[in-house]
Sequence to fold (308 residues):
Amino acid sequence: MHLLSLSDWTKEQIEEILALATQIKRDPSHYTHALAGCILLMIFEKPSLRTRISFEAAMLQLGGHGIFYDLGGSPLGAGKETLADTARTASRYVQGIMARMFKRDDMEELGRYATVPVINGLTDYEHPCQALGDVFTIQEKKGTLQGLRVAYIGDGNNNVTHSLLQVCSQLGMDMTVGCPHDPVFHPLKEIVKEAKAIGERHGAHISIVHDAWSAVANAEVVYTDTWMSYHIPAEEHERRFQLLEPFRVTQALMKQARATAIFMHCLPAQRGNEQTAEVIDGPQSVVFDQAENRLHTEKAILVKLLGS
Fold:
């Protein structure tokens, strides 16, 4: 079993991960030998802070070991080894593979040829581990998920937005994406279409609007992400900044959400761009609890996939 996309997982499988993460966070000592003797190969094509540290820490705390493999200095990165052969070979050495790649197709190729579980640590298309950590955090703070309203503000055409749409629709959570009119900032049409169809089955309402104020109205969760992701060329920064400026999360914007609303950001954050310092460092922010919870949900994923 792989975790390549949350669209491949059922509501029950997602809820199982959240329940297991709760148990692991509550009693981590019970799981210190859960993956004894297990090795996780961690393939990195893209830069990382949280993904590398949290997965490596998770393996160590579960009694296993993580191998960091940077494609910049590998035969695969130099184009001398195929992904298929890499997956086949690594599967003979390790119990699981976590990969942080640029292309969705490359992640799917790893999953197609590996004979051990493959975990999507990020592609330009999706970020399932982040989204699972996010809904775990929301559940921890709010006590429930069904019927909660999440407002995502800013650049909606990114991997985090896509995975949040997938997981929120599965769990019956309403989600509104507030982004500029320019289609470059819209979530991908196929993701939105899929999320709306899934949401109809689980009681979740999915919508895309082009006004930040209406997007956050009565929201229990306000979420944003960097305006300048790794893949954005420097020459596009000024234009993007101008288009996204009306979608900056300020204290005034937060007041349009419910008084008990929480603020979330997957990091790295640029204070003064997608949100003000007063918001991300303020009392409604759960950003660093959110970052910590990546560790607990990734432990649950690893125990679920590698432990068997």
User: Anything to note?
Assistant: The chain has two domains: 6-127+293-306, 130-290. DSSP finds twelve helices and nine strands in the chain. Strands lie at 39-44, 65-70, 96-100, 118-122, 149-153, 174-178, 206-209, 221-224, 262-265. The first strand starts at residue 39 and ends at 44.
